[in-house]
């Protein structure tokens, strides 16, 4: 099969790789209908995170079940399925508490690599959710978004305790930040402030339900959020970048007693304890337990209640993955969908 | 009147100070029935926090209302009252959300100094809660504890989402940590693990409801908590110290999706963002909004349901405050009660 491999920073090659096989009786093999490039793929692509030898890439996926292991009970060949970037048994105490991304048996799908024609998905019963019927082609991007960026933005909104009557600020205008805007709106927020200085992303944020746009960053961005909230700060702030500046912007934009939900993969961040203490906000975040939200998100997409697939503004054949990475790296594209 | 003043690290003098007077129509003057020395008073006493000129000390207090300003409506002369270390209006949006310690009009009672015979309490209607009747003398220590250490331990437990079925670990065996044990038990925790290596404090922790004692600290302490929780970590961890070691011990002792409630005043702490991200815990804490809990705590003390006054293991006349500080600094006493 064909699959994308990162050899060194900036060096993505799509090449022939061995077809995956069932390794454990709880595995399934899926044929990818679509996959994509994640903002977090850019960390190793840019050389900020280490590249550990030639690495298969990709952890977002939707596709059709081709083959199932002997112990698989809940999905069957021919079904269209959506899964998350962490395989989970969905039965352990941590999964049952809603933290499937930290399942005691969690396996990284990223290590397997889904920017490929086929992929082995471990712990299939606990990881995959089938759509009610095979989706029409125009719903595939939305379902693919559910696999990570929508699920991650949704978790950010849940972690930030978004709800009716709340004013929500979103730090970060990548795919996750934009879909956090959508999530905040779906979860009933009264006011959703997107923090973005890029006109096309502002437009998408508005389409997803942003009521206000703030273009300022850092202390000026914080001051603008305070102005919009009678000096108090937002009830809920979703952080979708992962840098020191974005985390502090999130903490400082939140009112005392308010909630920061952080889903940007943290790079080089050190949170000052004393400031955090006196800020008196709630902090929660991490790798999104997307599996928790998949049934609901699939239903919202399949009923066309939401259209998160709009975040894909570039679609390429898998063999052109390298251009997909480049376009995102140069911010020419918000998110690249790849067709195997 | 007599009052304690800190001149320099280690130098506490009880001296004649001017009697307080009503400065704003929302003030009251109370005659202190009891006051005490706080663990946080030791930071400037030890020279770790700056001493800013001769500073009146003390922010914990119970007493009898002597005089009220013209706008005071809810307390009257002769009533026995308990208040918190932040005066609050209890009507602003932040107070109504339960964060009176961050009231938009918050005033620090510590700047006024309650280790004295009399004190002016600002924003009296929003700050003070009267007992149903003047309490018998043996309840005074418990009510004084409610003013800060009990309220702070309670907030730690609430911030850590303690509840039925939960396993709770408490990092820190000072008065706040010990009363966090009591709070966890009252809030229905199934198992409460006190982390302490001091035998008399272990004993008090047991009296307050600890089911387990862990004497190890740091990584070994974390390993013991993991052992007690089938490798997962505690559901709720209350941090009541404020150092880098204690914060990391708290974060690492918490299971994914679990809650850290931190109430130790933070000194020199920097939280590593990446570890926090992948730990996937909830963090909440800060200066306790004691006022939120006072009505409930006063009732629990007055009905003799709890006896938080046991944390006072040294009682001295106000004029001997210096010895009270020394005894706590040298860990000869858990907490010193002062009788003006």
TrEMBL record, chains A, B:
CDD domains: FDH_like_ADH3 (cd08287). Residues 10-338 form the Enoyl reductase (ER) domain. The keyword Zinc applies. PROSITE patterns: ADH_ZINC. Keywords: Metal-binding, Oxidoreductase, Zinc. It holds the Pfam family ADH_N. The keyword Oxidoreductase applies. Coiled coil: none annotated. It comes from the Bacteria. SUPFAM superfamilies: GroES-like (SSF50129), NAD(P)-binding Rossmann-fold domains (SSF51735). Belongs to the zinc-containing alcohol dehydrogenase family. This is Zinc-dependent alcohol dehydrogenase family protein.
């Amino acid at each position: 099969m064909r699959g994308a491999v990162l050899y060194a920073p900036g060096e993505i090659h799509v090449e022939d790789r061995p077809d995956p096989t069932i390794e454990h009786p709880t595995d399934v093999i899926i044929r990818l209908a679509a996959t994509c490039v994640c903002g977090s793929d850019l960390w190793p692509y840019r050389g900020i995170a280490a590249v550990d030898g030639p690495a298969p890439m990709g952890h977002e996926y939707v596709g059709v079940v081709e083959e199932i292991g002997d112990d698989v009970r809940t999905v069957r060949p021919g079904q269209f399925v959506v899964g998350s970037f962490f395989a989970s048994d969905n039965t352990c105490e941590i999964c049952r508490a809603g933290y499937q991304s930290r399942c005691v048996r969690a396996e990284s799908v990223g290590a397997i690599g889904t920017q490929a024609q086929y992929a082995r998905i471990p712990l299939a019963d606990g990881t995959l959710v089938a759509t009610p019927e095979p989706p029409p082609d125009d719903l595939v991007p939305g379902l693919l978004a559910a696999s990570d960026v929508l699920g991650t933005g949704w978790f950010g909104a849940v972690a930030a305790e978004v709800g009716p009557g709340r004013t929500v600020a979103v730090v970060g205008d990548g795919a996750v930040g934009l879909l956090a805007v959508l999530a905040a709106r779906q979860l009933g927020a009264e006011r959703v402030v997107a923090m973005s200085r890029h006109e096309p992303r502002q437009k998408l944020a508005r389409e997803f339900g942003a009521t206000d746009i703030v273009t300022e960053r850092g202390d000026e961005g914080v001051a603008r959020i305070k102005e919009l909230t009678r000096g108090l700060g937002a009830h809920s702030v979703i952080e979708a970048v992962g840098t020191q500046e974005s985390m502090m912007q999130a903490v400082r934009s939140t009112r005392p007693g308010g909630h920061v939900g952080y889903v940007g993969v943290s790079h080089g961040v050190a949170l000052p304890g004393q400031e955090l203490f006196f800020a008196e906000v709630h902090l929660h975040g991490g790798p999104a337990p997307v599996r928790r939200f998949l049934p609901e998100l699939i239903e919202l997409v399949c009923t066309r209640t939401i259209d998160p697939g709009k975040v894909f503004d570039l679609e390429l054949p898998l063999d052109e993955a390298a251009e997909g990475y480049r376009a995102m790296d140069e911010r020419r594209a918000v998110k690249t969908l790849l067709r195997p």
